[in-house]
Amino acid sequence: MDLVGACKAFVSVSERGSFTLGASAARIPQPVASRRVAALEKHLGGRLIDRSARRAVLTPFGREMLPSAKRLVELAEAMEHDAERARLTPLRFAVPDVCSTLDLARLDAEAREHDVHLDFQPARPDERAELLRSQQVRAALTAVPVSESAWTVPLGLAAAVPPRARVLHVETLRVGRGDRSAPGRRIWIQPEDDVPHIRDRLTRLRDSVGLRPAQVAVAAALAPAVAAVLGSADLLLCSAKQAEELELHWRPIGGIDLARGYEVAGGAGDEAERIRERLGTGIAHCLGAPPRGGGAA
Protein backbone atom coordinates (compact mmCIF):
# COMPACT_ATOMS: atom_id res chain seq x y z
CA MET A 1 0.00 0.00 0.00
CA ASP A 2 1.11 3.57 -0.71
CA LEU A 3 1.04 4.80 2.89
CA VAL A 4 1.98 8.39 2.06
CA GLY A 5 -0.56 8.62 -0.76
CA ALA A 6 -3.27 7.16 1.46
CA CYS A 7 -2.48 9.60 4.27
CA LYS A 8 -2.58 12.51 1.81
CA ALA A 9 -6.05 11.46 0.67
CA PHE A 10 -7.21 10.97 4.27
CA VAL A 11 -5.93 14.40 5.37
CA SER A 12 -7.38 16.16 2.33
CA VAL A 13 -10.81 14.56 2.71
CA SER A 14 -10.92 15.21 6.48
CA GLU A 15 -9.98 18.89 6.05
CA ARG A 16 -12.71 19.50 3.47
CA GLY A 17 -15.40 17.19 4.84
CA SER A 18 -16.01 15.70 1.41
CA PHE A 19 -14.50 12.95 -0.73
CA THR A 20 -15.23 14.96 -3.86
CA LEU A 21 -13.62 18.17 -2.60
CA GLY A 22 -10.78 16.32 -0.91
CA ALA A 23 -9.99 14.36 -4.04
CA SER A 24 -9.98 17.56 -6.10
CA ALA A 25 -7.60 19.25 -3.66
CA ALA A 26 -5.30 16.22 -3.74
CA ARG A 27 -5.52 16.19 -7.56
CA ILE A 28 -6.75 12.64 -7.78
CA PRO A 29 -10.08 11.17 -8.96
CA GLN A 30 -12.75 10.76 -6.28
CA PRO A 31 -12.84 6.94 -6.58
CA VAL A 32 -9.07 6.85 -6.07
CA ALA A 33 -9.35 8.94 -2.91
CA SER A 34 -12.07 6.60 -1.61
CA ARG A 35 -9.98 3.50 -2.34
CA ARG A 36 -6.89 4.99 -0.66
CA VAL A 37 -8.78 5.90 2.49
CA ALA A 38 -10.36 2.44 2.57
CA ALA A 39 -6.91 0.85 2.17
CA LEU A 40 -5.57 2.99 5.02
CA GLU A 41 -8.49 1.95 7.25
CA LYS A 42 -7.76 -1.68 6.53
CA HIS A 43 -4.06 -1.15 7.18
CA LEU A 44 -4.65 0.61 10.51
CA GLY A 45 -7.48 -1.69 11.59
CA GLY A 46 -10.24 0.86 12.17
CA ARG A 47 -12.69 3.12 10.35
CA LEU A 48 -11.35 6.65 9.91
CA ILE A 49 -14.32 8.39 8.26
CA ASP A 50 -18.04 7.94 8.80
CA ARG A 51 -19.59 7.69 5.34
CA SER A 52 -23.21 7.42 6.57
CA ALA A 53 -23.74 11.21 6.66
CA ARG A 54 -23.82 13.56 3.68
CA ARG A 55 -20.44 14.93 4.77
CA ALA A 56 -17.29 12.94 5.42
CA VAL A 57 -17.08 13.04 9.21
CA LEU A 58 -14.13 11.76 11.19
CA THR A 59 -14.75 8.87 13.56
CA PRO A 60 -13.19 9.00 17.04
CA PHE A 61 -10.47 6.69 15.69
CA GLY A 62 -10.00 9.01 12.72
CA ARG A 63 -9.57 12.03 14.99
CA GLU A 64 -6.88 10.17 16.91
CA MET A 65 -4.99 9.20 13.74
CA LEU A 66 -5.27 12.54 11.90
CA PRO A 67 -2.31 14.28 13.62
CA SER A 68 0.02 11.37 12.80
CA ALA A 69 -1.21 11.33 9.20
CA LYS A 70 -0.54 15.07 8.89
CA ARG A 71 2.98 14.68 10.26
CA LEU A 72 3.71 11.91 7.74
CA VAL A 73 2.38 14.01 4.85
CA GLU A 74 4.39 17.06 5.94
CA LEU A 75 7.54 14.96 6.29
CA ALA A 76 7.03 13.45 2.83
CA GLU A 77 6.50 16.91 1.31
CA ALA A 78 9.62 18.24 3.04
CA MET A 79 11.60 15.29 1.70
CA GLU A 80 10.36 15.96 -1.84
CA HIS A 81 11.34 19.61 -1.48
CA ASP A 82 14.80 18.69 -0.20
CA ALA A 83 15.25 16.23 -3.07
CA GLU A 84 14.31 18.88 -5.62
CA ARG A 85 16.72 21.36 -4.05
CA ALA A 86 19.50 18.76 -4.01
CA ARG A 87 18.94 17.98 -7.70
CA LEU A 88 19.21 21.67 -8.55
CA THR A 89 22.33 22.31 -6.46
CA PRO A 90 25.19 22.77 -8.95
CA LEU A 91 27.91 20.15 -8.92
CA ARG A 92 31.27 21.95 -8.81
CA PHE A 93 33.35 20.42 -11.59
CA ALA A 94 37.01 21.24 -12.28
CA VAL A 95 37.72 21.25 -16.01
CA PRO A 96 40.72 22.13 -18.22
CA ASP A 97 41.02 25.87 -18.74
CA VAL A 98 41.53 25.21 -22.46
CA CYS A 99 37.85 24.26 -22.86
CA SER A 100 36.01 27.04 -24.67
CA THR A 101 33.06 28.88 -23.16
CA LEU A 102 30.78 27.63 -25.93
CA ASP A 103 31.78 24.00 -25.41
CA LEU A 104 31.25 24.28 -21.65
CA ALA A 105 27.85 25.90 -22.22
CA ARG A 106 26.84 23.02 -24.49
CA LEU A 107 28.04 20.51 -21.90
CA ASP A 108 26.04 22.31 -19.21
CA ALA A 109 22.92 22.24 -21.40
CA GLU A 110 23.37 18.51 -22.03
CA ALA A 111 23.88 17.90 -18.30
CA ARG A 112 20.60 19.64 -17.46
CA GLU A 113 18.77 17.17 -19.69
CA HIS A 114 20.00 14.53 -17.24
CA ASP A 115 19.01 16.60 -14.17
CA VAL A 116 22.67 17.41 -13.51
CA HIS A 117 23.57 21.06 -12.90
CA LEU A 118 27.26 21.86 -13.29
CA ASP A 119 29.33 24.71 -11.86
CA PHE A 120 32.56 24.74 -13.85
CA GLN A 121 35.90 25.54 -12.27
CA PRO A 122 38.46 25.94 -15.10
CA ALA A 123 41.99 25.20 -13.91
CA ARG A 124 45.36 23.73 -14.88
CA PRO A 125 46.11 20.04 -14.31
CA ASP A 126 47.87 20.48 -10.96
CA GLU A 127 45.23 22.95 -9.79
CA ARG A 128 42.40 20.56 -10.70
CA ALA A 129 44.00 17.79 -8.68
CA GLU A 130 44.40 20.11 -5.69
CA LEU A 131 40.83 21.39 -5.93
CA LEU A 132 39.59 17.81 -5.76
CA ARG A 133 41.97 16.82 -2.96
CA SER A 134 40.92 19.82 -0.86
CA GLN A 135 37.23 19.09 -1.58
CA GLN A 136 36.68 22.49 -3.20
CA VAL A 137 35.06 20.63 -6.10
CA ARG A 138 33.03 17.42 -6.14
CA ALA A 139 34.54 16.10 -9.37
CA ALA A 140 37.40 16.92 -11.73
CA LEU A 141 38.69 16.04 -15.18
CA THR A 142 42.17 14.91 -14.20
CA ALA A 143 45.17 14.55 -16.48
CA VAL A 144 46.32 10.91 -16.62
CA PRO A 145 48.45 8.76 -18.93
CA VAL A 146 46.65 7.44 -21.99
CA SER A 147 46.66 3.91 -20.58
CA GLU A 148 44.50 5.10 -17.66
CA SER A 149 42.23 7.48 -19.55
CA ALA A 150 38.58 7.52 -20.54
CA TRP A 151 39.21 10.22 -23.16
CA THR A 152 42.31 10.65 -25.31
CA VAL A 153 43.25 13.80 -27.22
CA PRO A 154 46.04 13.39 -29.82
CA LEU A 155 48.61 16.18 -29.82
CA GLY A 156 50.56 17.69 -32.65
CA LEU A 157 52.39 20.89 -33.54
CA ALA A 158 50.75 24.09 -34.75
CA ALA A 159 52.31 27.00 -36.61
CA ALA A 160 51.23 30.47 -37.74
CA VAL A 161 52.07 29.63 -41.36
CA PRO A 162 50.89 26.34 -42.92
CA PRO A 163 53.83 23.88 -42.87
CA ARG A 164 54.63 22.24 -46.19
CA ALA A 165 55.03 18.81 -44.64
CA ARG A 166 52.00 16.75 -43.68
CA VAL A 167 53.89 15.44 -40.65
CA LEU A 168 56.33 17.51 -38.59
CA HIS A 169 59.46 15.73 -37.39
CA VAL A 170 61.15 17.27 -34.38
CA GLU A 171 64.64 16.65 -35.78
CA THR A 172 63.96 19.15 -38.59
CA LEU A 173 64.18 21.89 -35.96
CA ARG A 174 67.82 21.04 -35.26
CA VAL A 175 70.14 24.03 -35.63
CA GLY A 176 72.85 23.45 -38.24
CA ARG A 177 76.55 23.57 -37.42
CA GLY A 178 76.94 26.84 -39.26
CA ASP A 179 74.07 28.47 -37.34
CA ARG A 180 75.29 28.18 -33.78
CA SER A 181 74.39 31.79 -33.07
CA ALA A 182 70.76 31.25 -34.17
CA PRO A 183 68.32 30.62 -31.29
CA GLY A 184 66.52 27.84 -33.17
CA ARG A 185 62.80 27.30 -33.53
CA ARG A 186 61.08 26.39 -30.31
CA ILE A 187 58.25 24.04 -29.35
CA TRP A 188 56.07 25.61 -26.72
CA ILE A 189 54.42 23.39 -24.11
CA GLN A 190 51.32 25.05 -22.68
CA PRO A 191 50.33 24.57 -19.01
CA GLU A 192 47.67 21.94 -19.90
CA ASP A 193 50.47 19.70 -21.23
CA ASP A 194 52.98 20.42 -18.50
CA VAL A 195 52.52 16.94 -17.04
CA PRO A 196 55.19 14.21 -16.84
CA HIS A 197 53.64 11.78 -19.33
CA ILE A 198 53.73 14.49 -22.03
CA ARG A 199 56.51 16.92 -21.08
CA ASP A 200 59.11 14.32 -20.18
CA ARG A 201 58.57 12.29 -23.36
CA LEU A 202 58.95 15.39 -25.51
CA THR A 203 62.11 16.54 -23.73
CA ARG A 204 63.63 13.06 -24.10
CA LEU A 205 62.88 13.23 -27.82
CA ARG A 206 64.46 16.69 -27.94
CA ASP A 207 67.66 15.36 -26.43
CA SER A 208 67.76 12.24 -28.60
CA VAL A 209 67.56 14.19 -31.88
CA GLY A 210 70.07 16.85 -30.83
CA LEU A 211 67.90 19.91 -30.21
CA ARG A 212 69.07 22.56 -27.77
CA PRO A 213 67.47 22.51 -24.31
CA ALA A 214 65.78 25.88 -24.91
CA GLN A 215 64.09 24.59 -28.06
CA VAL A 216 61.43 22.88 -25.95
CA ALA A 217 60.04 25.44 -23.52
CA VAL A 218 57.20 25.37 -20.99
CA ALA A 219 55.04 28.49 -21.21
CA ALA A 220 53.72 30.19 -18.09
CA ALA A 221 50.35 30.60 -19.79
CA LEU A 222 48.71 29.81 -23.11
CA ALA A 223 48.41 33.38 -24.41
CA PRO A 224 52.18 34.17 -24.35
CA ALA A 225 52.91 30.85 -26.05
CA VAL A 226 50.43 31.62 -28.84
CA ALA A 227 51.88 35.13 -29.15
CA ALA A 228 55.36 33.66 -29.57
CA VAL A 229 54.10 31.33 -32.30
CA LEU A 230 52.25 34.11 -34.13
CA GLY A 231 55.35 36.29 -34.14
CA SER A 232 57.87 33.68 -35.25
CA ALA A 233 58.37 30.24 -36.77
CA ASP A 234 57.92 28.61 -33.37
CA LEU A 235 55.45 25.79 -32.82
CA LEU A 236 52.76 25.14 -30.22
CA LEU A 237 52.10 21.67 -28.84
CA CYS A 238 48.31 21.36 -28.91
CA SER A 239 45.31 19.40 -30.17
CA ALA A 240 43.85 19.83 -33.64
CA LYS A 241 40.67 21.33 -32.16
CA GLN A 242 42.62 23.85 -30.13
CA ALA A 243 44.74 24.83 -33.13
CA GLU A 244 41.58 25.51 -35.12
CA GLU A 245 40.20 27.70 -32.31
CA LEU A 246 43.50 29.63 -32.21
CA GLU A 247 43.59 29.93 -36.04
CA LEU A 248 46.86 28.02 -36.23
CA HIS A 249 47.85 25.30 -38.71
CA TRP A 250 48.16 21.87 -37.10
CA ARG A 251 50.23 18.84 -38.11
CA PRO A 252 50.84 15.50 -36.35
CA ILE A 253 54.29 14.83 -34.91
CA GLY A 254 56.42 12.21 -36.61
CA GLY A 255 58.17 9.50 -34.62
CA ILE A 256 56.19 9.90 -31.39
CA ASP A 257 52.57 9.63 -30.30
CA LEU A 258 51.74 12.28 -27.75
CA ALA A 259 48.25 12.59 -26.33
CA ARG A 260 46.39 14.09 -23.44
CA GLY A 261 44.61 11.54 -21.29
CA TYR A 262 41.63 12.44 -19.12
CA GLU A 263 39.57 10.69 -16.48
CA VAL A 264 36.79 11.87 -14.19
CA ALA A 265 37.71 11.70 -10.53
CA GLY A 266 35.30 12.44 -7.69
CA GLY A 267 35.15 12.61 -3.94
CA ALA A 268 32.62 10.70 -1.90
CA GLY A 269 29.53 9.54 -3.73
CA ASP A 270 28.88 8.53 -7.30
CA GLU A 271 29.41 11.91 -9.00
CA ALA A 272 32.34 10.72 -11.13
CA GLU A 273 30.50 7.66 -12.42
CA ARG A 274 27.36 9.66 -13.10
CA ILE A 275 29.28 12.27 -15.11
CA ARG A 276 31.25 9.62 -17.00
CA GLU A 277 28.16 7.64 -18.00
CA ARG A 278 25.75 10.48 -18.80
CA LEU A 279 28.04 13.15 -20.24
CA GLY A 280 30.78 11.15 -21.96
CA THR A 281 30.06 12.43 -25.47
CA GLY A 282 29.76 16.05 -24.37
CA ILE A 283 33.03 15.85 -22.46
CA ALA A 284 34.74 14.31 -25.48
CA HIS A 285 33.60 17.24 -27.63
CA CYS A 286 34.84 19.74 -25.03
CA LEU A 287 38.26 18.13 -24.96
CA GLY A 288 38.56 17.54 -28.69
CA ALA A 289 38.58 13.77 -28.21
CA PRO A 290 36.70 11.19 -30.26
CA PRO A 291 33.59 9.88 -28.44
CA ARG A 292 34.22 6.71 -26.46
CA GLY A 293 33.34 3.69 -28.51
CA GLY A 294 32.60 5.95 -31.47
CA GLY A 295 29.08 6.73 -30.21
CA ALA A 296 27.09 8.28 -27.43
CA ALA A 297 28.26 7.62 -23.96
TrEMBL record:
Location of the HTH lysR-type domain: 1-59
InterPro entries the UniProt entry points to: LysR_HTH_N (IPR000847), WH-like_DNA-bd_sf (IPR036388), WH_DNA-bd_sf (IPR036390)
Keywords tagged on the record: DNA-binding, Transcription, Transcription regulation
SUPFAM superfamilies, per the entry: Winged helix' DNA-binding domain
Keyword Transcription annotated: yes
GO molecular function, one term: DNA-binding transcription factor activity
Pfam families: HTH_1
Gene3D superfamilies associated with the record: Winged helix-like DNA-binding domain superfamily/Winged helix DNA-binding domain
Protein family: Belongs to the LysR transcriptional regulatory family.
Protein name: DNA-binding transcriptional LysR family regulator
Source species taxonomy: Bacteria, Bacillati, Actinomycetota, Actinomycetes, Streptosporangiales
